[in-house]
Amino acid sequence: MANPEHVEILKQGVEQWNKWRKGHRDVAPDFGTVDLCGADLSRGDLGRADLNQANLSGTDLSEADLSQANLFGAHLSLADLRRAYFVLADLGLADLSGAHLSLANLSGADLSGANLSGANLSGANLREATLRRADLREADFTSARATGTIFADVDLSVASGTPHRVLLLLHQLQS
Description:
With 175 residues, this protein is mainly alpha-helical. It is built from three helices and no strands. Helix content is 17%, strand content 0%.
C-alpha cells in the first residue's frame, strides 16, 4: 500500500517531488499499488521507489530515474519510458506491452516474466539484464546493446518485421 504522504507530494508535480527527494535521500518512496495512469512523471527521481503492482499505463516516465526501483508486476503498457534509467530495477512480471523504451538503460534489470510484446527497445542498454520467460513478441531491438543479457525461455513468436532483428540479436549473443 502506497505511503499517502509520498503520493500527495508527487501529485504536486515532478519539480516539487524532486525537491523533496533531494532532502530525503535516505527514504525509499512507497507507491505500491498506486494508480498513476497517464501521469506526467518525466525526469522524476523515483530511484529505489516501491512501485510494486502500480498502474503506470500510459504514464510519461521519459528520462526518469527508476534505478533499483521495485516495479514487480507493475502495469506500464503504452508508457513513455524513453531514456529512462532502470539500472538494477526489478521489472519481473511487469506489463510493458507497447511501451516506448528506446535508449532506456535497463542494465542489470530483472525482466523475468515481463510482457514486452510490441515494445520499442531500439538503442536500449540491456547489458546483463535478465529476460527469463519474457514475452518479446513483435518487440523492436534495433541497435539494442545486450552483452551478458540472459534470454532464456523467451517467447519470440512474431508476426512480421521484427523477428529477424530479434533472432539476429540472439544469434550474436550466442556467438
